[in-house]
Write a sequence for this structure.
């Protein structure tokens, strides 16, 4: 279950409570879910009860108690704990991470693409400067991933005008050059230097592409051992599952805000959450491949798929060998 799907689940719970007369309040258009803050627990948390308390004329704790049993009816929700003044902390059911991996592998590099902007037309134009041109190209790609019809170089379009590059990025090559222009927020001055080419962990682009290449290597090595990926429960992978589930929300936000840096930084988060999983993907010594190995391989495959899809939207190659 992705954050977008969980948000819809929370909205259904609110609508159900209103329809059954437990709450007298207008159902909001959207509800935000996010990783729990200090004092929270579970996989995600929402402040919807605090948001609805005043218009409902009830204490937030009461609103949370009304919503909790309705959330628990959803098969993707394992538990709901109320903390603080009325925060709903939601733990996903054990089957939800398996379903998420299946969804990613089924969707491939189009995972996170949606139809939220279906039927909308967006017109863009960029100032005559290399960073602006690259930004406009990626903004168009991300908007199209959400179903928008995009017209580039439209004189009446929204002006794409990030802080200009201080130097020509061409000497970095097409991939590192694009990353140097896209990774900083549009209002930040990009750095055009050799740090984007170094093959070490201090370079975010290297971490992303190396993480992707490692997942492809694991698939090849597992194939040599006679087994392939099969989604299943994976212990100690909450951080990775959380960032993978968050991918559709990040794409939607990057499209809405014309902010390709949000996608670039998200890919770094995926890459940084992957290493703890990797040592246990392949059998060790005389160990035989098991269902646990196949499940870990499927999760690694899903992470590599998200990295490849995200890099493609940025116009950057995702090599299988690095």
């Amino acid at each position: 279950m992705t954050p977008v799907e969980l948000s819809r689940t929370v909205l259904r719970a609110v609508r159900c409570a209103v329809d059954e007369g437990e709450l007298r309040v207008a159902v909001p258009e959207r509800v935000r879910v996010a990783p729990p803050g200090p004092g929270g627990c579970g996989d995600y948390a929402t402040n919807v009860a605090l948001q609805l308390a005043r218009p409902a004329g009830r204490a937030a704790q009461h609103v949370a108690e009304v919503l909790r049993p309705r959330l628990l009816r959803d098969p993707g929700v394992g538990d709901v704990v109320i903390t603080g003044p009325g925060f709903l902390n939601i733990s996903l059911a054990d089957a939800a991470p398996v379903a998420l991996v299946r969804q990613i592998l089924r969707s491939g590099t189009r995972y996170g693409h949606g139809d939220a902007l279906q039927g909308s037309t967006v017109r863009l134009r960029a100032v005559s400067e290399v960073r602006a041109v690259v930004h406009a190209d990626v903004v168009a790609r991300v908007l199209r991933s959400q179903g928008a019809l995009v017209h580039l170089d439209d004189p009446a379009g929204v002006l794409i005008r990030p802080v200009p590059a201080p130097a020509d990025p061409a000497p970095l090559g097409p991939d590192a050059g694009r990353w140097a222009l896209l990774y900083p927020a549009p209002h930040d001055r990009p750095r055009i230097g050799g740090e984007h080419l170094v093959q070490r962990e201090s370079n975010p682009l290297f971490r992303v592409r190396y993480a992707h290449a490692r997942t492809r290597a694991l698939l090849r090595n597992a194939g040599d051992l006679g087994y392939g990926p099969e989604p299943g429960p994976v212990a100690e992978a909450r951080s990775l599952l959380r960032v993978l589930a968050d991918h559709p929300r990040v794409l939607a936000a990057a499209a809405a805000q014309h902010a390709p840096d949000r996608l670039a930084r998200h890919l770094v988060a995926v890459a940084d959450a992957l290493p703890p999983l990797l040592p246990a993907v392949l059998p060790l010594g005389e160990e035989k491949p098991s269902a646990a190995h196949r499940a870990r391989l499927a999760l690694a495959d899903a992470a590599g798929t998200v990295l490849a899809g995200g890099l493609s939207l940025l116009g950057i190659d995702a090599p299988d060998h690095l």
Remarks:
- The mean pLDDT is 94.
- DSSP finds eleven helices and six strands in the chain.
